[in-house]
Structure formats: structure tokens, C-alpha cells
Amino acid sequence: MSAEPIRAGSEYDPTSWPAAVQNPGFVGDTGEFAGLTEADVRGTAFIGERPADGGHASVAGTLPYHTANKDPQAPIFHGPYEDRLEKILSRYPDRQAALLPALHLAHEIRGYLSPETQDEVAEKLQLPPAYVRGVATFYTMYNLAPVGKYLIQVCTNISCNLCGGDAVLEAFLKHTGTELGETSANGLWTVIEVECLGACGFPTAVQINEFYYENVRPESVPDVLARLT
Ligand code: FES
Fold first, then answer.
1. What are the residues whose beta carbons fall under 8 Å from the beta carbon of 202, sequence distance 6 or more?
2. What is the pLDDT of residues 120-172, one digit of tens each?
3. CA separation (Å) from 29 to 43, 151, 154, 162, 208?
4. Ligand 1 mean position, distance from CA 42 (Å)
5. In b/e form, how buried is each residue of 164-199, taking b as 16+ CB within 10 angstroms?
6. Per-residue pLDDT at 28
7. Is the bond preceding 140 in cis, omega lying within 30 degrees of 0?
8. What is the CA radius of gyration of the chain?
9. Which residue among 159, 168, 194, 206 has the greatest number of ligand 1 atoms within 8 angstroms of its CB, and so is best to mutate?
10. Which atom of ligand 1 is closest in space to residue 156's alpha carbon?
11. Residues with CB under 6 A from ligand 1
């Protein structure tokens, strides 16, 4: 194949294109947005914990802003979380339809869905345990085993892959001292690779717990980890 551009000097000639400029993304450490804090990017009103009862029923099924501290033994449908489940149930025609947000709620509190947790959800929603198992194990976004305090999900799908996603994944593994999918000895880190995170314009995209980091490069990784600890 010829290396000659289709029409020299035309819009199809890559040598005539302006230098690429990276979009800053949420990681906020590139270009004119260098040095932005998370509060600068998100606004101070956006940071913090939602009430455990989830606030208004319309948002009760969604995740809180930051839930790094999980307790695998925590009661999942008591106190404010009972209120939260009632709000979730009020939005659906029957209990079966509320299964996904109910599993999300249990996942949010405990960090993963053990078989026992799945059974508790089944009992609470009066659904067959096997049905709940089938749903919980179908979706890859539910953790079925414990993960670290910070679950680092590195996108290695096509856009991120073309822009160095594999190198970013390697950097996270190296700097956390973990193997893929394994949790570090200090319980802080679990690094996995994931399919497209829906941020293809900001490769490499990384999701850490509920936060997105975009335009992550291998050399950014120590800074990203330092922000978390
Ligand atoms: S390919 Fe990485 S976010 Fe879409």
C-alpha cells in the first residue's frame, strides 16, 4: 500500500492536520486544565455521600457518589436501607422488576454478591433463589467475590486499545503490585480489564469505584493512585 496521501495538502493528507490536542477528561491533569482538583472538576456540591436512604425515590436505585468503604457483613435491608428498598420498589410494577436495583443496593453496601447475599435478596423480594442467581451471575458489573477497596477497571477495548490501553493496564498492575484480577495484600487494589466504558473519546478510560478517569497514560498512573490514598 502506498504511503502517499490521497491528495497532498488536502483534508485527507495527515501531514496537513493540526497537532492532536488531548481532551482533559475527568482526570484533569492535561492541557490547559492541568492541576485541577476533583472539586474544581465536579463542583463542591457534587462531592460527598448521598443519604443511605437514597434521597428521593427517583434516584434511590442509583449508586451514591463514593462508596469505597464496604462491609461484607453489613445488614443490607435495615434502617435507612430498608427505606431505600421501599423507594426502589415503589417505582416498579412488581418485585421481580426491582431485582437489578435491589442487587445494586446489596452490592453497594457489601462490595460483592456472595451466594448468601443473593439468597437474602431472593428472600426479601420473594423470588426463587435460582432466578436471582441467574441474574446476578449474568451481569459482569456485579462482583461475585471480594475485591479491593479500590476496584480499578481499565478499558482495553478498541479505542482505548489503539491509544495504549494495554500499557495503562500494565502500569496499574506494576504500581499496585498485583496480578490481573487479584487483590493486593493490603486489600487496597484490584485491577481488571473491562469492555468499553462508553468514554471512547477520552482514551484510555479507567473507572475506579464510581469515578471515571480519562486520558490516562502509563505515566499518569502513580498520580492517579496517589489521589486515592
Ligand atoms: S473503547 Fe475505551 S471507553 Fe470505549
1. 23, 25, 214, 215
2. 999 999 999 999 999 999 998 899 999 999 999 999 999 999 999 999 999 99
3. 16, 21, 18, 21, 16
4. 21
5. bbeebbbbbbebbebeeebbbeeebbbbbbbeebeb
6. 43
7. no
8. 21
9. 159
10. 2
11. 155, 157-160, 196-200, 203, 205
Q: Using the mean position of ligand 1's atoms as its centre, give its distance from the Cα of residue 67 in Å.
A: 24
What is the model's pLDDT at position 6?
Answer: 65
- Rounded Cα–Cα distance for residues 147 and 184 (Å): 9
Pairing, β 150-155 against β 189-194: parallel
Q: How far is the CA of 195 from the centre of ligand 1 (A)?
A: 7
This prediction has a pTM of 0.78
- Neighbouring residues of 108: CB distance < 8 A, sequence distance ≥ 6: 63, 64, 67, 70
pLDDT at 221: 92
Task: Find the mean pLDDT for residues 206-218.
Answer: 87
What are 62-114's pLDDT values in tens digits?
Answer: 876 556 678 889 999 999 999 999 999 999 999 999 999 999 999 989 999 99
Number of CB atoms found within 10 A of residue 91's CB: 13
Q: Which three cell numbers stand for residue 196?
A: 468499553
CA 80 to mean position of chain CA atoms? 24
Q: For residue 97, which amino acid is it? A: A
List for the chain the helix, strand, coil content (%; round to 5): 40, 10, 50
Distance of CA 41 from the midpoint of ligand 1 (Å): 21
